[in-house]
Amino acid sequence: MSETTVAQHALLGAPPEYLTPFERPTLDEAQAWCHQLATSHYENFHVATFFLPRKVQPHFESIYAYCRAADDLGDEVADPAVALRLLDAWGSMLDECYDTPERSIHPVFVALHETVRGCGVPRELFADLLHAFRIGQVKTTYDTWDELLVYSHYSANPVGRLVLWVCGYKEESFALLSDKVCTALQLANFWQDVVEDAERGRRYIPAEDMLRFGVDEGQIEGRVFTPEFRAMIEGLVVRTRGMLHEGGEISSHVDKELAVILDMFRKAGDAILDGITAQDFDVLRGRPVVTRVKKVFLLVDALVAKLRAGLSR
Length: 313
Fold this sequence. Notes:
Elements: H1 3-10, H2 27-41, H3 43-50, H4 57-75, H5 80-99, H6 107-119, H7 123-138, H8 145-155, H9 157-166, H10 172-192, H11 194-199, H12 207-213, H13 217-222, H14 227-247, H15 256-278, H16 292-312
Helix pairs in contact: 2-4, 2-6, 4-5, 4-6, 4-7, 5-6, 5-7, 7-8, 7-9, 8-10, 9-10, 10-14, 10-15, 12-14, 14-15, 15-16
């Protein structure tokens, strides 16, 4: 069996768009594939890349393609056993991308190797993300705040570190600030999606908080909002916002162009928490959303900041 055939069989059972092609694409073809995925699959990412320096945009598109595909291999496959097999195959392709890149056939890894080669990105950052997707297949509830921090270490923090690394910032002190922002964004999404996650059999509200406030699982399933539930969510939102703002200090340590996008992500996190607060912390009656007006405001604010950064440079 040829190497190409082995690679194709490794992803059998994956969503069709992620199957390995019959022939290895050129770098241009692979980057075009990643660009198509990044600009069509998730609108907010397409908007965010506009604020990045043009020279690094292909790197972020290859990183996004890696993450998007890995996430879908886990979430879009009904059988957890198959999903874990596919994630293991994706991990083997990642190792191949680092160790024997000339053997990579999938467009994600053909493109990603150029990012690895050009930016010297540590393999650990990509491997940690993959570890998070594996955790998601087997762990569906969390007992403590610290457990959530451990999960976010793998699922969220590598993304911020990748952004810094590709933009030339490798200091651990900066990465630790980025970790706070990324973890806070992850947590804000958890508090926003309590009902949706419950419908998928997941609970990210720590059991210790539920016990402290006298909230039980049935309240989430039955959407029973009480003063105790309100107090619990308010406490989680306050704690998350504090972490978000502590990490936001990173914007004062990077160049103005990168600070624009980092500020945009922080403000997006604030907007989610503001939406929860505006609903009086009742995340059971419906998913709090960032209004279209608020999104436009954030976009215009970021655009003005980008123009100012360009003028000052």
